[in-house]
Design a protein that fits this description.
- The chain is an alpha+beta fold.
- The chain has a single domain (about 30-120), classed as TolA/TonB C-terminal domain (2-Layer Sandwich), CATH 3.30.2420.
- It contains four helices and three strands, in the order αααββαβ.
- It has a three-stranded antiparallel beta sheet with strand order 2-1-3, covered by helices on one side.
């Protein structure tokens, strides 16, 4: 086997290897506690979003649900807001913008979608 072919086989093997590209000690999947630690670390900006929404429209209230998935590299994806009645609110756009910038610990297996209820 030539050096070029060996390099190609090695590269393909590394790409196909489970957990390839992750540091040793990377978790298999995130626990609920892992996710809550990150959410709680952003509690101040979340409260600021709620406060500004109340200032803009004091009569609006309810429960906004923010949903997203966490990729194995720790970045968020598919961040959205529900129900429909709150999607166009300041609160929804503020929180969705925050969550898009959050980073979670790297892990090997993508978990279920996260659903964060915010009552205001």
């Amino acid at each position: 086997m030539t050096l070029r072919a060996l390099t190609l086989v090695t590269a393909v093997s590394l790409l196909a290897a489970p957990g390839a590209g992750f540091a040793q000690g990377t978790k298999e999947r995130l626990s609920e506690a892992d996710i809550l630690i990150v959410i709680r670390s952003h509690s101040k900006p979340l409260r600021e979003c709620v406060t500004e929404q109340k200032r803009r429209n004091p009569s609006l209230g309810g429960t906004l649900r923010i949903q997203w998935t966490i990729q194995p590299n720790g970045k968020t994806r598919s961040v959205g807001a529900a129900p429909e009645q709150f999607r166009s609110t300041y609160l929804a756009s503020c929180v969705v913008g925050l969550v898009k910038g959050w980073n979670f610990p790297p892990h090997r297996v993508q978990g279920e979608a996260v659903d964060l209820p915010i009552t205001f």
